[in-house]
Amino acid sequence: MVDLFSLIKDYLVDQEDGIRHLITWFLNLVMEEEALLQVGAQRYERTDSRKASRNGYKPRTLLTKYGELELLKPQFREFPFETQVFEKYSRVEQAILSAVAESYLQGVSTRRVDKVMTALGVEGISASSVSRITKELDEKVSEFLSKPIEHEIPLFVY
After folding, report:
1. Whole-prediction pTM
2. Residue range 20-31: mean pLDDT, rounded
3. What is the mean pLDDT of residues 5-25?
């Protein structure tokens, strides 16, 4: 018997443009969360605990098996932004795909998103941040799923 999870994951992988867009979006979101942790405050928030000021983004590319991803790396005025995304991406690529495939099947698990973030080296992230990322990932997957199918899908009958 064919594993439904594997079929869906294969379908998502075949949709290279869609999965490339989804992974780009997710990794940019991870870097935003890393930036929040390093700065110590939300964007535009005035607080004594703020460690740095934001200074836009620097375009960076990441080569994956789905092609080159164009990412936006946050910048600070006071010190360089450090991210684990570029160093650890290849190790967690499968975890990201699994999270996307799982969200396709049964909705996104906050535990799964937290594991992916931890594997990327983003630790100490709040439960509310993980929940927000989970909600946004679920919305992106729903948007992806509602797009019309542009080619024929073979029908399997047992």
Report:
1. 0.55
2. 84
3. 66
- CA-closest candidate to residue 115, choices 2, 21, 30: 30
Q: What is the pLDDT of residue 2?
A: 43
- Compute the distance between CA of residue 82 and CA of residue 34 in angstroms, rounded to an integer: 8
Q: Where are the domains of the chain?
A: 4-146
- Coil/strand/helix, residue 73: strand
- The rounded distance, in Å, linking the Cα atoms of 48 and 24 is 33
Judged on CB neighbours under 10 Å (0-12, 13-18, 19+), 120 is buried
For residue 94 the two structure tokens come to 């499968």
Distance CA 138, CA 105 (A): 11
